[in-house]
Amino acid sequence: MYDAGSGGVPLNEAHTFGLSVRTQALLLPKDESEVPDAASQATYIIGEGSNILPLGDLPPVLSTRYLRGYQVLRADGPEVEVAAGENWDAWVRFCIAQGWHGLENLAAIPGSVGAAAVQNIGAYGVELAPFLLYVYGWNKRIEAWQRIPAEACKLGYRHSVFQAPEWRDQFVITRVAFRLSRRFAPVLSYPDVARRVHPQRQHDPWHLYETVRAIRTEKLPARGSAGSFFKNPVLSASQLEALLQRVPEVPYYPAGEGYFKVPAAWLIDKAGLKGYQIGDAQVHPRQPLVLVNRGAATPEDLWALARYVQETVQERWGIPLEPEVRVLPALSSQASHS
Ligand SMILES: Cc1cc2nc3c(=O)[nH]c(=O)nc-3n(C[C@H](O)[C@H](O)[C@H](O)COP(=O)(O)OP(=O)(O)OC[C@H]3O[C@@H](n4cnc5c(N)ncnc54)[C@H](O)[C@@H]3O)c2cc1C
Question: In terms of residue numbers, what domain contains 294?
Answer without folding.
Answer: 230-322
